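note to self: the first set is below, dont mix up w the second
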Amino acid sequence: MAEKTPHQNVSFESEGRQAHGYIAIPQGGSGPGVIVVQEWWGLTDHIRDVADRLAAQGFVALAPDLFGGWITHDADEAGDMMSRLPAEEGARLLAGATDYLLSRDEVTSRTVGAVGFCMGGGFVLALAAQQREKVSAAVPFYGVGQAVPESYTDLTASVQGHYAQRDSMYPVEQAREQEEQIRRESGADVTFHYYDADHAFHNDENTAGNYDPENARLAWDRAVSFLRANVE
């Protein structure tokens, strides 16, 4: 039987406060660093599984807990909790997570990648714009409009987006506008992929039944290849 990926809950300092998260380390013991940004449900088993899957691909993956341990599967509660998290506060917490991840002995890269889902899709872009050269690859999976930067002039990371054509929470027209704005203002390498799917098509624990195995697999393979090519 294959050895399980080492993983653990961790605490780190962010903006002078204690923050928490979940880290997964490859069986080889080291690798490039990737930040995993949660959906509005909280730091769920699904997000932990995403970190584990990245570790299985050779990355040291850290999923910060933006909600301080709070988890729900109710959309109204999730929306309420997200509304209580100011975009600036979430971005600062992610900045602390970035510094913590880069300080880990297991991390072999001088930059980190960042991948985020739903609410995390906006926070990934905010983190990349805020941390500039520290984040070399940003991978937003859909979004809900939360934490999306007004400007991308500070963003230097390469960006690969994964957006759904039938997304009622973040319509594809907004995603296309976002793609063009990032390309125009940042000058970075920007590629968005659009899928014949609904919001949260990558989440195999989504209770709304939006999970799309074929598109999820395609998007995941693209994301992993992109991170390998750009996190160094």
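second set (the one i keep forgetting abt)
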Amino acid sequence: MKVDFWQIGRDPVERVVALIAQKVCGAGERLLVVSSDPQQLQAISTALWETAPEAFLANGTADTPGAERQPILLSRTCDALNKASHIIFADGEWRAEAERFDRSFLLFGQATLEGARACWRSLDGGEGLERSFFRQDGGKWVKVA
């Protein structure tokens, strides 16, 4: 399992989700985006729909008909109705259900920094686990660890 920690700085969460979603969907995988905040999920949906036409990112919410057909599913829970192999925790809260996915992304900012650090430490040395840390340097995302 891969776990990527993305420290949000300059760009808003919804823009970072769209960036990751482009890569995940471009690789032919499905994605689940989780947040306990319904307003954040709405902002993410809007950002995904408004992404450049060449990178159209269809998405839907878990509580609507056809959720299982969505390449990108937005939800308040970790139930991958769309059989996603990748999950983004957009609200900065790690959930143990991440182990059910091939790859997890924890997006965190200043408000959730301590939780992300604790999560990083708790995942240290896990067998079959690969951790990575990304930070924005100017306008580019760089892998720091």
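remember for set 2: Residues 2-143 form a domain with the Rossmann fold fold (CATH 3.40.50.10110).
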